[in-house]
Amino acid sequence: MIVGVVGKANVGKSTFFKASTLAEVEIANYPFATIDPNTGVGHVKVKDPAIDFDKVSNPRNGFVINDSRFIGVQMIDVAGLVPGAHLGHGMGNQFLDDLRQADVLIHVIDVAGTTNEKGESINPGEYDPANDVKFLEVELDMWYLGILKKGWEKFARTVMQEKREIHIALGKQLSGLKVTEDMVGDAIKELGLDKDKPNAWEEDDLKRIATILRKKTKPMIIACNKIDVPGAKDNYDKLKLEFTDHLFIACSAESELALREAAKAELIEYVPGEESFLNLNEEKMNEKQKAALNFIRENILEKFGTTGVQQTLDKAVFELLEYIAIFPGGVSKLEDSEGRCLPDCFLMPPKSTALDFAYKLHTDFGKKFICAKDVRTKMTVGKEHLLKHLDIVEIVAGK
C-alpha cells in the first residue's frame, strides 16, 4: 500500500511529507522544489493492543509511544501539479506517471489562499482554494480519460468482434491504474451503458467512467494546510459547505514538523496526533524556539485540537481505504522466540479473512492452513472468518 502526497506546487506538500516521515527532502518557497518524487515511511497510529494484556509491544518495525503504536506505511511525495498537467504542462507527465502506484491520495492545499494557480506566492485570501479542489480532480479525470480513449474505437470494435466481455477487457487495459474487472463492471452498470455495444458509447460516457474509476482507485483526503494563517479558517468552513462529499482536515504541516523535530531533539515530549506536548528541557531552548512552540500551542493545538498531519494519514488508511491492523500472536504467549511482545503488525485490506492473513504471513501457512485462533477470546475460527481491526491472531498450520 502506498500513500501519495499530491497537490499544486508550493502549498506545503514536501513539508507535510517531511513532517510525516522526517525524511530529508528539499523544502523551498518556489514552484517545483520537488522534481523527482520523494519516498519515505510514514506511520499510522493505533492503540497498542499489548495494553489489554498489561504489556507493552516491542515492534520490529515502527515504534510505541505511551499507549500508541505506530505502524509504517510507504509514502511518496510527487512533483507539484499545475492546470493542464494531463496535457504535459509543468511537471504534469512526470507527476501523473509517479502517481500510478498510489493507493490513496492526500491532496495538500493552501487553505489560506496564499498560492496562485501557478504555485506562486501571493497575499492571503487572493486565491480561492476551492479552485484547487476542483482542478486536481479534473486533471486526474482527464488523465484517466486519456488512457481510456487511447485507441478506443479500434479497441471497442475488437472486443465486439471477438465477443469478449468489455469489463474484463477494460479491466486488463487499465490494470496499471489499479482498476479491476469488477470496478469496470460496476461502473458500466451504474451508468446504464450497453455492455454489448461499447462502440456506441459517447465521449461523455467515457468521461463518466473515468471519474468513477478514479474515485475508486485513487480515493482522496484533503489536508487544508496553513490553517493558522489569517482567513484560512473561514476558507476551511466554506470548503466543507461547498464540497459535502469530500473529507477535509484542518492542517499545519509546518507546526507538526517543528513538534516532531523538537521531540527528536528531546526538547519536548510529543505524541504525533495528540492535542498537547510537554516541555522537557526548556533551559536548552532559545527564545525563538520557545516563541515558536508557544505559537503552536496557542494557535494550532488549542484551537484545532491537533496539527492535522497524523489525523490525515490515519483517516487515509483506516477510513478511506478501510484497512485493518492485524497482529500475529499466540494464545499461550504474545512474545516471539527473542522475547519481543507482538513484534509484527500487518495492514490488511477490508474483508480480509483468517486464510488471507495466513498467506500474508507465509505461503506455506496458507497452503497448510488448519485453523486460526482469536488470541483475545481464545476462540478457534475457520478460514472464512472475517478479521477485525486490532485483532491478534494465531495461525495453526500443518507441517
Biggest sheet details: 7 strands, mixed
Mean pLDDT: 91
So, CATH architecture of the largest domain?
A: 3-Layer(aba) Sandwich
Give the terminus-to-terminus CA distance. 31 Å
Could you say which structural class the secondary elements and strand pairing correspond to? Answer: alpha/beta
Question: What's the CATH class label of the largest domain?
Answer: Alpha Beta
Number of helices: 13
CATH superfamily of the largest domain: P-loop containing nucleotide triphosphate hydrolases
Compute the number of strand runs: 14
Poorly predicted parts: 24-35
The SSE string, one letter per element, is EHEEEHEHHHHHEHEHEEHHEEHHEEE
Task: Describe, in short, the structure shown.
By secondary structure, the chain is of the alpha/beta class. The protein has helices spanning 13-21, 92-99, 130-149, 152-161, 166-173, 181-191, 203-217, 232-242, 253-264, 287-304, 309-320, 354-361, 363-367, and strands spanning 2-6, 38-47, 63-65, 68-77, 104-110, 220-225, 248-250, 268-269, 278-279, 324-328, 346-348, 369-374, 379-381, 392-397. Strands 1, 2, 3, 4, 5, 6 and 7 form a seven-stranded mixed beta sheet that branches. Strands 11-10-14-12-13 form a five-stranded mixed beta sheet. It has a two-stranded antiparallel sheet with strand order 8-9.
Give a description of the structure.
Helix 5 (166-173) packs across helix 6 (181-191) and helix 6 packs across helix 7. Helix 8 (232-242) links the parallel strand 6 (220-225) and strand 7. The chain folds into 3 domains: 2-37 and 78-130 and 219-317, Rossmann fold, CATH 3.40.50; 150-213, Helicase, Ruva Protein, domain 3, CATH 1.10.8.470; 323-397, Ubiquitin-like (UB roll) (Roll). It has 399 residues and is α/β, with parallel strands linked by helices. Mean pLDDT is 91; it is low at 24-35. The two termini are 31 Å apart. Strands 1, 2, 3, 4, 5, 6 and 7 form a 7-stranded mixed beta sheet that branches. It has helices spanning 13-21, 92-99, 130-149, 152-161, 166-173, 181-191, 203-217, 232-242, 253-264, 287-304, 309-320, 354-361, 363-367, and strands at residues 2-6, 38-47, 63-65, 68-77, 104-110, 220-225, 248-250, 268-269, 278-279, 324-328, 346-348, 369-374, 379-381, 392-397. Helix content is 37%, strand content 18%.
